[in-house]
Write a structure and sequence with these properties.
Two copies of one chain form a homodimer. Chain A is α+β, with helices and mostly antiparallel strands. Chain A has two domains: about 100 residues, Phosphorylase Kinase, domain 1; about 200 residues, Aminoglycoside phosphotransferase (APH), C-terminal lobe (Aminoglycoside 3'-phosphotransferase, Chain: A, domain 2, Alpha-Beta Complex), CATH 3.90.1200.10. Helix content of chain A is about 40%, strand content about 15%. In chain A, strands 1, 2, 3, 4, 5 and 6 form a six-stranded antiparallel sheet that branches. A two-stranded antiparallel ribbon of chain A has the order 7-10. In chain A, a hairpin with a 2-residue loop joins strand 8 and strand 9. In chain A, helix 4 runs parallel beside helix 9, helix 7 crosses helix 9 and helix 9 packs antiparallel against helix 10. The longest helix of chain A has 28 residues. The first copy, chain A, is globular and about 60 Å long. The two termini of chain A are about 35 Å apart. At the A-B interface, helix 1 and strand 1 of A face helix 1 and strand 1 of B.
């Protein structure tokens, strides 16, 4: 979370002038996003009423060729009534521009705050917003493969090597075998759509009990809808280190999801495997980041074991982790 | 520039509830301030019209006992018409509160952007705003000594040691002698008031040619008014590395200052020494930070030579650096 680039005020003002949003009034670099720089921008607005935007500069990890997919997706979802920020297009109609060799996009600012300890009512809203997004995505018409699926996660863990994995935690090399099992068990015939695949609490803004915004769609890709629900479940229902599970929050997410879209029996039966796969993804990416980040770097390394513990929970609990009620 | 502390949304909401500002709508950690964490906060406001604030958490460097001085100063200057953000007081009237053992204050949000390449018209506004602040500060009634004066800077350079200084730049140890000379030449009888002492472009927000806010008063202390003008001159009129001087910007700052408050002959004559002292302060603090920051840290170290070059410029140019016109 950082602002990686200094943008001179004069360059910012010139950039904003390419959009029909009035004059630049304020610009604050904000500490959000791990793969890009973001500024909270205020302008005089079109009708002289102040307007706010998020200006995002894509620094790394995001392939330029994927950017139209991500930005068009925001527009598609917003147009279909989902709480998703629209992309602001410049005077020529472009959804992004180049600045100093980097792509930048101006995104609608939506209010709301990310909760740390959701209530069941908030979790219900999260599930409902996710289902609403899935239904709207069915008509999107663009696709992008999931490059971080179980096969890729297995490959990532293998590439880390058993010895380096064991240095993070002695239990970690075992997850190579668990990942291989998950690849064999992975369901291939569940209903698919464009998914968020990273709907952590950080990526949802709320006002009271209601979801005001789903944000940060830069991992969006096609996958099974139930997998996206499993990612959300795994990232919302546990204590930070994955040592305790809150069944009430999990039930509320699923109930909220089903208030908009019913799960089939096949999807419901697949949830334990899908949730393990969701956890595996974060075990693998965190292990890879851990190994590539020096121990004395000022960046906080995220412990892959936080999600390894969740994986084991889903592995041992099976479908009962997703049963209704307390 | 960072957000050093994670504040849970629930704790933020509880904090905001202690103020008469409505409900929390949005909170973004912003990349401003080197010694504290800041969030740009939006609330529903008192009359249901959205209001914005800066929430500052004081992380280090700032002594808790100095905080009333800094916050009262903001209120005093704002009440006297200076473009300075007010402190928002809580329902009990307190200007700061404690949260997790750290002091936090809610500060008025003012619009504007920091310029990187000021025009002469902008520089004139900066000088005028500084003089306006000096005149208003005369009636403040509280004081705080300058702990970073020339004597302190000399001491800091000596403490760094000649060998470590030479490792930064072979020329740097010479500045111990130059600092000692400045201490001997330092004027003691110039008009004094509470000064900002750190009015770099970062700490001024502008809308067009006008100053909309002076911010970050956490180095404010009593010193000679002409010294504060010299700090501003030294931080606005040079290229980043201090290799080129823009006389037009310097003249405009002084003309702007004198549009509100005339300099005496003594003050004008003292400017070359005061400006060298201003540069010395940043040479010393940057050298100290450089030596205490590992070379491979992710923090960008600021080169003390950027201000050593400025110091030499003022030393060789004398009063002509401050002459009117081109």
């Amino acid at each position: 979370m950082a602002v990686y680039t200094h943008l001179a005020a004069e360059d910012l003002a010139a950039l904003i002038a390419a959009y029909d949003v009035g004059d630049l009034v304020s610009a604050k670099g904000i500490a959000e996003g791990v793969s890009n720089s973001n500024w909270l921008i205020e302008t005089t607005g079109k009708q002289g009423r102040g307007e706010r935007f998020i200006l995002t500069m894509y620094e790394r990890r995001i392939e330029l060729e994927d950017l139209p997919f991500f930005l068009d997706l925001l527009d598609h979802l917003a147009a279909h009534g989902c709480p998703v920020p629209r992309t602001i297009h410049d005077r020529s109609g472009a959804s992004f521009r180049m600045l100093d060799g980097k792509a930048v996009a101006l995104i609608e600012f939506l209010p709301g705050i990310s909760v740390d300890h959701p209530t069941a009512a908030q979790a219900f809203s999260v599930g409902a917003a996710l289902a609403q997004m899935h239904l709207a995505s069915l008509h999107f018409g663009q696709s992008r493969p999931n490059t971080l699926d179980v096969a890729a996660s297995l490959q990532t863990l293998k590439s880390c090597g058993e010895e380096p994995l064991a240095q993070i935690d002695p239990a970690l090399p075992d997850y190579i075998g668990k990942a291989a099992e998950l690849c064999d068990q992975w369901p291939s015939d569940l209903p698919r759509t464009v998914c968020h695949t990273d709907l952590f609490p950080d990526n949802i803004l709320m006002l009271g009990d209601k979801v005001s915004a789903l944000i940060d769609f830069y991992f969006a890709c096609e996958d099974s809808m139930a997998y996206d629900l499993a990612v959300t479940h795994a990232s919302w229902c546990f204590s930070k280190q994955g040592t305790s599970f809150d069944h009430a929050i999990g039930s509320a997410i699923i109930a909220g999801y089903e208030s908009q879209r019913s799960l089939s029996d096949e999807e419901r039966a697949a949830l334990p495997v899908l949730a393990q796969g969701a956890c595996l993804r974060f075990v693998a990416s965190r292990a890879e980041d851990w190994i590539s980040t020096p121990a004395d770097a000022l960046v906080t390394r995220k412990d892959p074991m936080d999600f390894a513990r969740r994986l084991d929970f889903y592995r041992s609990e099976g479908v009962s982790a997703f049963a209704a009620g307390e």
